[in-house]
Design goal:
- By secondary structure, the protein is mainly α.
- Helices cover about 60% and strands about 0% of the residues.
- The chain has 28 helices and no strands.
- The longest helix is centred in the middle third of the chain and has 16 residues.
- The N terminus is likely disordered.
């Protein structure tokens, strides 16, 4: 080999050794500057498949923000700059190199808990958002007050109040609607009546008390509601009163307004407002028409026989006893009716209502109207039980009752079921059954049924159409 070629060999070996030692790792720029010729371009990532990752690594390893700017992907470029700014706590990097310096400074403020950095953000929206985020992170309402937007400042205090369960933070909100909402929501969350008190004299205080009452299932909170309709709804929803109680209260309120004495009207209304509606509610009402109206409403609600003597007149008392007896299915209450015909009527109605022939037996047999037998018959048909006809005292009426069933049901065995026993002093054990068949024949005109009649004379008369 010529002597002039020998110096090249060590250089080739040296370069090969450097490449071997470096492998695939990125060379340090300062190291390469001592090797590469000064005239060679300084883009050391040109031959990398992922140039952005190369620039990111160079920037991070050398704290070189200029390499972040070479990254083509905007989010990755911003991530690169933010990483450098955070690691060096150098805010100047955000302002000099970032395409979105406000967002970069916001992230830097959150990462370093530096509220003052938010003030350096020129974009007001981003700056205010920075204060809101810092306030939430530090749980510091004072930070909210640094925001320039009144609406965002109010929202910031609202969020912080809910986050820290602080009514005091709510009171710092100067936007009325937001302050009321803040206190209202917090009262429900904490179930704390003291929070509602902070809303006194505002339009939302009643909503606050109602919400608190429902949250705690506490009717006493309902009593704090000033608007009566809402107070009633609150008591109803809490379960302290029924819908019927509210309806009674509203009806009695109209009655209170009609009372001639103002003092009585005021006392009446006061008791209603406190839901003091008991059986003695009408006792202080002197005017008889209003007293009767009041007792009628109370009795419809309580259904209590002890109210009846309060009516003061016999007719009204008897009507009251009958109403209670029918509502409570009480035979004994019917017997409290003083007027005899009204007592019979009460028992009759009760027997029919309950379809109970035993009640019919409690009626009196009178010359003018046989309550008992008519009662048995009506109970029999309402209960659709022919056997209930058998309680009827007179045999002709008993037979006629069975005959009606036989015709209606087209089941003439109903007559056959009548037992062979005399219901009178005469020795005629077949009378009732024969009379039943005779009544059926007279109704449907089918003489073939005459064959079931036992007595020969009655059978002959039946066949002859007599």
């Amino acid at each position: 080999m010529p002597a002039c070629m020998r110096p090249a060999l060590p250089l080739i070996v040296l370069l090969s050794l450097l490449l071997f030692l470096s492998g695939c790792s990125l060379p340090k720029p300062d190291f390469l500057k001592g090797i590469l010729a000064p005239s060679q371009p300084e883009d050391y990532c040109a031959n990398f498949v992922s140039k952005d990752d190369c620039y990111l690594q160079v920037a991070q390893e050398n704290q070189a923000p200029e390499f972040c700017k070479k990254i083509v992907d905007p989010p990755k470029s911003e991530q690169c700059l933010l990483g450098l700014a955070l690691s060096s706590k150098n805010r100047a990097l955000c302002n000099v190199y970032s395409s979105e310096p406000g967002k970069c400074l916001r992230q830097l403020a959150l990462a370093t808990n530096a509220v003052g950095v938010c003030a350096e953000i020129e974009d007001q929206n981003v700056s205010d958002d920075c204060y809101l985020a810092m306030a939430a992170k530090l749980s510091n309402p004072t930070t909210c007050l640094l925001a320039r937007s009144p609406a965002l400042k109010a929202d910031c205090l609202y969020i912080l109040a809910q986050q820290t369960n602080s009514p005091q933070a709510c009171t710092n909100i100067f936007v009325d609607a937001t302050r009321y909402k803040c206190l209202f929501d917090l009262s429900l969350k904490l179930a704390n009546p003291e929070v509602c008190k902070a809303l006194e004299a505002t339009y939302s205080v009643d909503d606050c008390w109602k919400g608190l009452a429902l949250a705690k299932k506490d009717s006493l909170a309902c009593d704090r509601i000033s608007e009566e309709t809402m107070r009633d709804a609150c008591h109803y929803e809490v379960g302290a009163v029924s819908g019927e109680t509210i309806a009674l209260k509203n009806d009695l309120a109209l009655l209170c307004a009609k009372l001639p004495e103002k003092s009585q009207a005021a006392a009446c209304q006061s008791r209603l407002s406190a839901y003091q509606i008991s059986a003695d509610f009408c006792s202080d009402i002197d005017s008889q028409p209003e007293r009767v109206e009041c007792l009628d409403k109370l009795n419809a609600f309580f259904v209590d026989a002890s109210l009846c003597p309060e009516y003061r007149t016999r007719d009204a008392m008897d009507a009251c006893f009958e109403f209670v007896a029918l509502q409570k299915s009480s035979l004994e209450t019917c017997k409290l009716v003083v007027d005899i015909p009204k007592e019979l009527s009460c028992i009759y109605k009760l027997a029919v209502k309950e379809k109970n022939p035993k009640h019919c037996a409690e009626t009196h047999v009178t010359d003018s109207f046989d309550y008992r037998n008519e009662c048995y018959k009506e109970v029999a048909f309402l209960s659709k039980q022919p056997r209930n006809c058998d309680f009827i005292y007179f045999r002709e009426k008993r037979a006629a009752c069975r005959a009606e069933f036989a015709v209606l049901d087209q089941n003439y065995a109903i007559c056959k079921e009548i037992p062979n026993e005399a219901l009178s002093d005469s020795n005629d054990p077949f009378f009732t059954r024969d009379y039943c068949f005779k009544s059926v024949v007279e109704t449907i005109r089918d003489k073939s049924l005459c064959d079931f009649i036992q007595d020969a004379k009655r059978k002959e008369a039946c066949q002859a159409g007599q």
